[in-house]
Specification:
The chain is of the alpha+beta class. Helix content is 23%, strand content 41%. It has a single domain (2-101), classed as Roll (Archaeosine Trna-guanine Transglycosylase, Chain: A, domain 4), CATH 2.30.130. 21% of the residues are buried. InterPro entries: ASCH_domain (IPR007374), PUA-like_sf (IPR015947).
Length: 106
């Protein structure tokens, strides 16, 4: 089973269903079962499923992509990607939008 790691800030939005995608750089994901692991103390894991994968360029992300990821707009999503997750993310980076569903505690 594949594992998707998450920053602890995303636990509640994932549980609430307001974050249903994640944008990844240099990570391969496939449709199928997944464990969603949050870097909390202690670690929290949820079972879930990757329901879709779409490869695109960073500069082609849309406001709709951002809202599905729990952000107000594309600029907020890209700022978070660069300041928290991938500081050296180039404008033309190939990224993967991972669509997922969280089911419950692992």
């Amino acid at each position: 089973m594949q594992t998707i790691g998450f920053h602890p800030d995303y636990l509640e939005p994932v549980r609430a269903g307001t974050k249903v995608t994640t944008v990844r750089y240099r990570e391969d994901m496939v449709v199928g079962p997944a464990e969603l692991v949050f870097d909390t103390q202690p670690t929290i894991a949820l079972t879930g499923e990757v329901t879709g994968v779409r490869r695109t360029r960073l500069d082609e992300l849309t406001d709709a992509d951002a809202r599905a990821d729990g952000f107000a707009d594309r600029d907020a999503l890209i700022e978070r990607l660069r300041t928290v997750h991938y500081p050296d993310l180039p404008d033309d980076a190939d990224v993967t939008v991972v669509y997922f569903r969280a089911d419950g505690p692992a």
